[in-house]
Specification:
single chain; 173 residues; mainly alpha; 6 helices; 71% helix
Length: 173
């Protein structure tokens, strides 16, 4: 009886494929996190483009980080710790909004896309306006509300578009 040679590396892989996953993350959590990352990325890329066009790369997260963490106007040159800190905070806020959207959007029975977009846009705008009200004096930023509203609308559209393409949310996962 001839012996067949098997790849020793394939045996552990085959065992892993047969075992059920120990960590089952609900689809709504995964989709909420992904949509939040999408929304945060849209805003970050838009403002990075604006900052680069104005010859001040990373100025927006530096300015907002200075207002949020130090309560003062920004230093003349961007500080990495403020940019990173604000970027993490920005991402966390959008992930929270994405998780909220992943919970609420499936509850809408009709016109999910439009209502999801409008709901997410309103949430993002409210969060930004609250932030602006709290830190308006200290931020010293030259953020034009038109750019902010555009960024928030694009983020909400991207997030709502992601939710519209996701099928697992309707299954109640």
């Amino acid at each position: 009886m001839p012996q067949t040679l098997t790849d020793p590396a394939s045996e552990p892989r085959a065992r892993l494929e047969r075992q059920p996953s120990r960590l089952a993350i609900p689809a709504r959590i995964v989709h909420g996190i992904l949509s939040g990352v999408i929304g945060a990325s849209v805003v970050a890329v838009l403002f990075l483009g604006i900052d680069v066009a104005q010859g001040r790369p990373l100025w927006t997260p530096h300015t907002l980080g200075s207002a949020l963490f130090l309560g003062r106007a920004p230093a003349p040159e961007p500080e990495a710790v403020l940019v990173i800190g604000y970027t993490i905070t920005h991402g966390a806020v959008f992930v929270s909004l994405g998780l909220l959207g992943a919970t609420l959007i499936p509850l809408l029975s009709t016109h999910r896309g439009l209502l999801g977009f409008l709901g997410l846009f309103v949430l993002v705008e409210i969060v930004f306006l609250l932030f602006s009200a709290l830190f308006a004096d200290a931020r010293g930023a030259d953020l034009h509300l038109g750019f902010v509203s555009l960024a928030n609308a694009l983020a909400a559209a991207a997030m709502a578009g992601y939710f519209a393409r996701v099928r697992g949310l309707d299954a109640g996962e």
